[in-house]
Fold this protein.
Amino acid sequence: RRIKGEVVLKDVTFGYVPGKTVLKRINVTAKPGQKIAFVGSTGAGKTTITNLINRFYEIEEGEIYIDGINIRRIKKDSLRSNIAMVLQDTHLFSGTVRENIRYGRLDATDEEVVAAAKIACAHSFIERLPEGYDTVLEGDGANLSQGERQLLNIARAAISKAPILILDEATSSVDTRTEKYIERGMDRLMKNRTTFVIAHRLSTVRNADLIIVLEHGEIIEQGTHEELLDLGGRYYQLYTG
Ligand code: DUT
Ligand code: MG
């Protein structure tokens, strides 16, 4: 069976408010299983691209296709089950830790929940909570640190079977040591999925199949890490600081 998760953006132009274009004629083709990284300064439009793939907003011009189907024709539920994400702002609900991890995979067994938590390096802190996996989280995980909330989101993505994964600064709130530790889990998370990764830390994007450099909503460079370093342009500048 052919793996799914092809994502194509064709001439996508978008703005949140009329008259202010945030993305200009963006073309991206992600083949199933590829890892595509978006880099560029703050406000360049990286998160906006993933917002559009998720169809959080309607595109003005251009089209996005998932496995050849225009996302305008994909039901929102179906889109949700095809895309797993770990975002800058983490979303948890008031419920137990277990329920939060199983979100979107209600058929998951307790063993699968623990396995996902281990991939995300969340297992040890969960075990230290008063009721372990049955600990009730206050609204939006208020009784956890930001990093812990992020680890639960990573666990949620790990348990999901979605062929597309979006990681937007997925490990921005965890300390460097935990991040190092998670890296191997992240590789497992990305295995056999089309992954869009956004990270300011360029060390996390260098092994991507394709790195796309955005500036003011336009693609200014793209290629592999080596190709972009050879080019000696914006990526080179970002990388060599
Ligand atoms: N913008 C809005 N409304 C929103 C979100 C963003 O007007 O709800 C603007 C802010 C910015 C542009 O869109 O000028 C691109 O924002 P985006 O969040 O896509 O930028 P980024 O590349 O993800 O920046 P960062 O690295 O800070 O996350
Ligand atoms: Mg962003």
Remarks:
- The chain has one domain: 7-240.
- The radius of gyration is 18 Å.
